[in-house]
Amino acid sequence: MPLAIFALTIAAYAIGTTEFVIVGLLPTVATDLHITLSLAGLIVSVYALGVTFGAPILTALTGKIERKPLLLGLMTLFVIGNTIAALSPSYEMLLVARVIAAFAHGVFFSVGATIAADLVPENRRASAIAMMFMGLTVAIVTGVPIGTYIGQIYGWRATFWAVAALGVIAFVAIAALLPNTLKKAPPASILDQLRVLGSGRLLIVFAMTALGYGGTFVAFTFLAPILQDVTGFSQSSVSLILVLYGIAIAAGNIGGGKIANRNPAKALVGLFLAQAIVLLVFSFTAVSPVPTLITLAALGFLSFANVPGLQLYVVQLAKEHRPGAVDVASALNIAAFNLGIAIGAWLGGLVVESPLGLASTPWIGAILVAVALLLTIWSGALDRRAAPSLRVA
Asked: Contact, 12 vs 139, CB < 8 A?
């Protein structure tokens, strides 16, 4: 792999860390800023909404900018966002900082995959894209628990200073290693995106993505307070448990890709069913340390195992229903993932503030995943109904 790919991997690592590290810091942030846990959970929702709506719009608006200056600008925006977060004197300012960082996140992953593919021969493009996204996976395994540990020892602002420093390293790596002559893909206009949203078949899959992926975030957003207040783990143990969860996520990402290769719709039925069951079980095991660890390992595997299948399924259906906008459909599915995070975190906050309480977030998340399961079964039935007519044609 060319060294330029590793510059993109470093940037993906920094971005992945800032997105998910807040999960481990929620109790610390809530205490320091004198806000409720549900308000702290909105920090996750606001970031995810920034990615959801910022990515497609800003990608369309920045389509004519040369790729390397665009990436350098995005990392500058990322550093600014995390620096403002580190300096935030109030909850409101922290929300603004998170939106700024989210805008950089959305556009980076929209254009980064295309750049990674162009840096290598055609037969190595998938490996190049996987290498870039490895930064995101490694961030979940290492960046989030390390960032959580830093925040618990030195305060949550120290974590954002550390993430801003990662952004500076990524900026330097991109400036030094990325070639100046990168090809620009034809920019996808907002009109192209609206055409994709006009496909009922693709809208079903976008809903599957948002509900199936987002269901886990009803509980995952509040995982640190669940582990401390419900299970009884010490604050210092949370960062170690997040390592276990991150390893399970990485395994799920790889395993989910293999499971979904042949028939993604069929694979997603099994994955969503298992995910809903494990979330339901977590409602009962959360009160006991050892069963909690076992359940979290299973939940970590399943919560990201559906990602490759959902993305592959969208591409397959886009080739059939919107063949001129496959890349746009893929990008909008990324937006659907983040919309799911926003919905899950927001709903989790409502549950935490309700009489149901913190311990009920897993089974509420299971309901969302169950709806995604029903949509997947429906979508598979539509595929089978369309298959005979396709063979005749």
From this structure: yes
Average pLDDT over residues 33-49: 92
Per-residue pLDDT reduced to its tens digit, 154-189: 999 999 999 999 999 999 999 999 888 777 666 666
Q: Residue 138: which H helix or E strand, with range?
A: helix 125-138
Helix (H) or strand (E) holding 191, with range, is helix 190-197
Token pair, residue 116, equals 């990674």
- For the chain, the farthest-separated pair of C-alpha atoms sits apart, in whole angstroms, at 66
Residue with tokens 């949550």: 156
Residues 330-373: tens digit of each pLDDT: 778 888 989 999 999 999 999 999 999 999 999 999 999 999 99
| Whole-angstrom distance, CA of residue 217 vs CA of residue 245 | 13
Rounded to whole angstroms, the Cα distance separating 165 from 148 reads 16
What does pTM read for this prediction? Answer: 0.84
Query: What DSSP string runs through 333-375?
Result: HHHHHHHHHHHHHHHHHHHHHSTT-GGGHHHHHHHHHHHHHHH
Q: pLDDT of 176-225, one tens digit each?
A: 998 887 776 666 666 777 777 788 889 999 999 999 999 999 999 999 99
Residue 181 has a pLDDT of 78
C-alpha distances in Å from residue 265, one per residue of 57, 336, 379: 29, 17, 8
Task: Return the sign of the alpha-carbon dihedral for residues 307, 312, 315, 321.
Answer: negative
Check whether 326 has a pLDDT greater than 60: yes
Distances, alpha carbon 96 to alpha carbons 87, 333, 339, 360, 381, in Å: 12, 25, 18, 30, 43
Query: Which tokens belong to 66?
Result: 């040369």
